[in-house]
């Protein structure tokens, strides 16, 4: 069984939303010496492939980022919503998610087993901040992750992806 928090991550990881995530990655590499560890292309609204998700290491810390998805409450800065969410790794995502909802949070997506090997859910706290909560349940190779993501996105209209 893999560790609940994957190797290299801390308990909390920022997740940044962008219009132009590929350009942001290049900026962070030049400006902060970021090391690109993961880049997952997704079909964008116009059908062109964009950075749907990426993971960068800056110093001893991880930053996740990807394309803005306004229909899921994730917008780029200046887009009138949340451009940053906090990604929280915990040993039991279902228990923590339930506790957060009971405490006044609003469920945006219940915990679900995801293609990248996390059981993952999203919520909004009573103050409007967006949180994703996850437990790492499986180590998945980049090739298998891509296959699973393609399978998950099959049949999803481009404007939703």
TrEMBL record:
Pfam families: Glyoxalase. It comes from the Bacteria. Residues 8-136 form the VOC domain. InterPro entries: Glyas_Bleomycin-R_OHBP_Dase, Glyas_Fos-R_dOase_dom, VOC_core. This is VOC family protein.
